[in-house]
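Lay summary

Proteins are chains of building blocks that fold into shapes. Our project writes down both the chain and a compact code for its shape. Here are two examples, one after the other.
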Amino acid sequence: MDWNTVQKYVTKLRQRIYRAEQQNKRRRVRKLQRLLLRSKANLLLSIRRVTQQNTGKRTPGVDGLYGLTIKRTYQAISTTAKT
């Protein structure tokens, strides 16, 4: 997985939202926000943040698991993407 590409896509989308807000283009802001929420790149980035970059990654969650390996991370991505 090329995380730099995913990060750049999400960052540019956030910048587009910010610029649209500054220009008072409410409809465009709503459309871009919807795009960001439904974006698979945003989902991937959030799962990566929780499983790899988060300082509390060694704290078990409700499921009792912690310190997910790369394999488990991709399993989490695949199960989350299906729902």
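And here is the second example, written the same way.
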Amino acid sequence: MSIVINECTMKDVTELQKISYNTFYETFSPMNSEENMKTYMEGAFNIKKLEEEISNPSSTFYFLYDHDELAGYLKVNVNEAQTEEMGKEALEIERIYIKKEFQKKGLGRHLLNKGLTVAKDQNKRKIWLGVWEHNVNAIHFYHKAGFVQTGTHSFYMGEEAQTDLIMMKVVE
């Protein structure tokens, strides 16, 4: 396995948009309306929004390549960029997405480990994420990695409120 993880820069924004649309759609379209998917993706993954996120020093994106092919990405947030107030000792994994054709190869573990490394490098004491309550595979993955559910929050898919489980792990 030839795995490389690189930090995204502004020159990567078009590729980031493409993989964001692709992986989000693959993951959530079977369980959501086309209208809600379109509304969410147009808001979350438009070029201007992604450029703002890439330029925010409290957010970082990483691309994961498997044999020189873009297979997935990671987004982490600290400080005010976190989607929930978790304090300065926390790092949020906002997104871990792997393209469908690369799933079940252990690549998600590489991105999770990258998030943990970033948290350690920044002297964070805890790492957390929100995962949709119906995303059973992801919940199992995070439990297996030592995350525990500590709460819930609402996530809006278009007009529809959905529930995300807040899962946390102490950084060791």
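What can we say about the second shape? Residues 3-170 form a domain with the Aminopeptidase fold (CATH 3.40.630.30).
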